Amino acid sequence: MEEQRVRYTHEVESLRTELQNERERVQASEKVAQENHEGMEKLHREQLSTLEIAMEEQRVRYTHEVESLRTELQNERERVQASEKVAQENHEGMEKLHREQLSTLEIAMEEQRVRYTHEVESLRTELQNERERVQASEKVAQENHEGMEKLHRNNFQLLK
């Protein structure tokens, strides 16, 4: 019995030692788990903070880029409007110039028509005057011829 008691005592001591070792191992494991948990939590907070900073920087970049694009778009719109205005003014200027040129040509053509009409009338009058002169000349020539013929007949008769 003493032996049994010694064995039990030894077994109990052994179990107590084992229990103590297990407790220490559990405590160490809990400590490591707590440290790991705290480390992971710290790491997650750092990662979250880094992500928040990166997102804010990205938001600032995107905001800047959007504003830059808006400004560029506004500048392009203004440039297009200015080009359209210049094109419209050029078109209106060219249209006015063409109307003026057309008006000048119409005036010149009317002046030319009046000159040609006057010249044609003048030439017709001149032609009519020449015809009348020719007719008068032919009449005089005819009369002279008839007169000369009569004179020749008279002279011829006198000579006979």
Automatic annotation (TrEMBL):
Keyword terms of this UniProt record: Coiled coil, Developmental protein
Keyword Coiled coil: yes
Domain of life: Eukaryota
Basic and acidic residues biased stretches: 125-152
UniProt key word Coiled coil: yes
Region spans: Disordered: 16-42, 71-96, 125-160
Classification via PANTHER family: PROTEIN FLC EXPRESSOR (PTHR33405:SF17), PROTEIN FLX-LIKE 2 (PTHR33405)
Family: Belongs to the FLX family.
Protein name (database record): Uncharacterized protein
